[in-house]
Amino acid sequence: MNVVWRKEWINEYESPWSVFEKLALVNLADRNEILQIFGSAHVKDIKHYIGDKQRELIQLNGFHLERLHQTLDFNLQEHNFKNIQSLIGPFSELYSSWEHWFHRELHWCSRCMEGGYHSWLHQFKLLDECAFHDLKLNNTCPNCRSTVPFLLSNRQLEHAFQCKCGYAFANFHMSSWNEWRAPDQMNPAVLRWVQANQANMKISNMHSKWIIHAQHCNLKRLVMDGPEEIKLFNSEETFHRQDYFSKRFQKDLLQVTSNAVQQVVDRLLQSTLKSHRHCITQLMELRKSNETIEFPEICPYAYAYVFWRKSLLKKEHFYGFDSLRISLISDDVAPLLVRELLEYFSDQVVNYQMKIRRCIDMGGLSWILEKLVLQFCENFFCAWMEIAGKRSKEVSVPSWKEIENMRDQSFPDVAFKYNFDESSSSSSIEYYHLQNREPLLNNKCNCPNQYETAKQDIQTMISYTPQKVAMLNMSNPSDEHQILQKIVERYVKKLSF
Ligand SMILES: [Zn+2]
Ligand SMILES: [Zn+2]
Ligand SMILES: [Zn+2]
């Protein structure tokens, strides 16, 4: 087959996705036909189903690279590698593979797409706006809401640049089918980043290291913002690599986390929740005035606190605990909701410390963990506050899936820059907090228990936890007790996740 192509159609920072869409459009081919032409020997041997691994666009593993190079008159793989390096250069040691840095679903800018252009900068997780137009990126079809995999695949696509549902991401007329548009000028902050990385392509700086998480960072802010805080460390307490895995060390880390959560609890109880302590007691102890009556209306503040705490600490029940103390140090305690993220950060810190100093400095590590826990817990409480008004009235809770979503949204966008000064063997850590501003509790909720009489009522109410009611029913199986047990069970079931 004769392939129609001109290498001028490939633009700077362009991803292979739009290169192949252009190929499809110009040659009236679909994506499987393109893979047939350019697939590796292995791919050509596959008779039926060609899996996603052969269709990926980062390494181009499923392609016959030489044929691709010759036909396009362009080295697409080298172009990929250069582009990716210029985005992730200083972070490249954080993950073992590049896939972590790029979305699995296509992310695109509608303005760029109109010209047939899709970029690595759209697909990069650290940018949520187009680097050329500052527009919010799309990741679902505006018509059918489907996502498109970032692969050479027909799965969600019909004709070139067209969704399965018929929606056209770009319209090319017969007369202008190859009038592709090159990208506009790049946002200066992003451009600075990309150019600096291109200049330092091969120089790795041992004496400072960025520690970020691909999902919880924002590149534009990182380039523009200064650090929120810089902390200097003169390490006294040092540990060895094997200590990191010891029970004692892990317990110390857990203590740091636990203290940070307690700090947030104390702060909340002295501010937002100050006048709702009785409301929290009522909900947590499942208090009501008598056996046969339904439970009273839930105060939204108590709701937010009780379920924030339950989900954060992954408690089985929301009721019957000591509301004011947090302890993560005991054998029957489940790990914190963000354990994996915290582990990621502490592994990165420890790896770097080991590389530079051959020992672990507890000071820097706990400082970073504390920052993460404090910020996450506050954001996560705000997320619970946002749904508390409606949900407390409905007596309902979100599903675990929704809670995981709240968790991911609440984890702060941050970056740490670890600097190590060899001459004085001291180190400093810069903390970049990449959020717009501190989360504000701007949606005021109505508490049903603010009258003096309501406070007294709660004090005289009786606690009916499921265990207590089960005991009552066992010792005296009366009709009232059976009704009571039903009421309690129904209520608790509505509030479990
Ligand atoms: Zn754009
Ligand atoms: Zn669609
Ligand atoms: Zn209240």
Describe this structure in words.
The protein contains 19 helices and 8 strands. A hairpin with a 4-residue loop joins strand 6 (414-421) and strand 7. The protein has helices at residues 16-27, 31-38, 41-45, 65-72, 76-88, 110-114, 120-123, 188-199, 219-224, 241-244, 247-270, 277-284, 300-312, 339-357, 362-394, 400-410, 452-460, 466-475, 479-494; strands at 208-211, 229-233, 238-239, 287-288, 360-361, 414-421, 426-433, 462-463. It is globular and about 85 Å long. The chain is of the alpha+beta class and 497 residues long. The longest helix is centred in the C-terminal third of the chain and has 33 residues, at 362-394. Helix 5 packs across helix 8 (188-199), helix 13 (300-312) crosses helix 15 and helix 14 (339-357) packs antiparallel against helix 15 (362-394). It has 2 domains: 7-189, no CATH class; 238-494, no CATH class. The strands form 3 sheets. It has a 4-stranded antiparallel beta sheet, with helices on one face. Bound molecules: zinc ion (3 copies).
* Low confidence ranges: none
**Portion in beta strands:** 5-15%
* Principal-axes shape call: globular
In N-to-C order, the SSE pattern is HHHHHHHHEHEEHHHEHHEHHEEHEHH
Oligomeric form of this entry? single chain
Structural class: alpha+beta
The ligands found in this model are: zinc ion
First-to-last CA distance: 58 Å
- What is the radius of gyration? 28 Å
Largest sheet: 4 strands, antiparallel
DSSP summary: helix tally: 19
**pLDDT averaged over residues:** 91
Strand neighbour order, sheet with most strands: 1-6-7-2
**Number of separate strands:** 8
The total tally of domains equals 2
Q: Approximately how much helix is present in the residues? A: 40-55%
